[in-house]
């Protein structure tokens, strides 16, 4: 471990000094005993001296020993949302191993990619199609979609060193916007969604189904998704306009080979999973149950082998990180920490006197500013969303309004930097776009997406009977 890492790790331990003080008046002592470990964990995720999974294991272990809190430390690993996201990572591996994701992308290139703008739409649609079962932006956009379209850019003579603006810069900047649009559209399209989902249930007492989630966000996020290829085309207009997409698609499909039995079975299972998620309110089948059933059928049919799942470190790191953080946040809620914080904030500021819409806007821009501090969207969701919810409860904001607005800020706000989302280091790291340009474009698209969600999303949510602040 380097000196820099050691210093960062030492800083993470500073919140534990709170254990030497008495709990604030009115706070459950159990909440005070857990809170310093929770803050230390968030600091660790922000400063990143070690991986997220390692940080969680360190502070969960210390809490279990020092506070005799092994039940709390393990509680998050039994949650539905933990296994929903872990299971979806396994499904993402099936798409990668069978190369079905690549096949879909090449077919869309053949259909839409005759021009550079059309290629942008092919990239967007490719990401959208596999997003419901690929909760990792890094795995989906960075690991499946971008390598294909980067290969296309390089084949057209656009590399980071030579002629990046020919088309490579356009595609890399575009895909970062696309991955956030597709990520917010589906509960299972973005791993950090499950953190917000958990906070919504634990703090607001709301249960949001897979279908409700998609119904809420598919219209405003879909409009941003449809605008993004054209918008980035105007900002980063490629010098290459015409593309031999039929040849590229043909050669790509030939390199994969004909559609095999595993791809066909996976395609059927994928469609069945979407259908079950969409009809869960009628069938009563839980979203997590659908994922677990999907995995069992993948193993039974031989699409996946357990030895391949066992060596996929991303799956088990996700289990450690999400199970740990959700368990700690859930325990804080059980110990009435967020209720205490709402009461405490109410003694400082009378939020009930605030105009609801003005307070929502204020909290959105405060949350957006916080994005520059976080290298993980999951960490942002675990630390900022509870504060926004708590202030909202103190002010009497409608619960659905808070969920819709703060989730929009939590996901679309990640566009402001290249490090706020796991796909960013992959796409920005390709080297096609200068940092200043990337940040400027990201901030512009973030603000534009807020405007679109306000002008189109809010009336749509009102039509659904959800948004009531106006």
UniProtKB/TrEMBL annotation:
The chain crosses the membrane at residues 37-65, 72-92, 104-130, 174-198, 210-233, 265-283, 289-306, 313-332, 344-365, 372-391, 403-428, 440-461. It comes from Mesosutterella faecium. It is found in: Membrane. InterPro entries: CitT-rel, SLC13A/DASS. It is a multi-pass membrane protein. Belongs to the SLC13A/DASS transporter (TC 2.A.47) family. DIT1 subfamily. Pfam families: Na_sulph_symp. NCBIfam families: dass. This is DASS family sodium-coupled anion symporter. It comes from the Bacteria. The lineage of its organism: Bacteria, Pseudomonadati, Pseudomonadota, Betaproteobacteria, Burkholderiales. Keywords: Membrane, Transmembrane, Transmembrane helix.
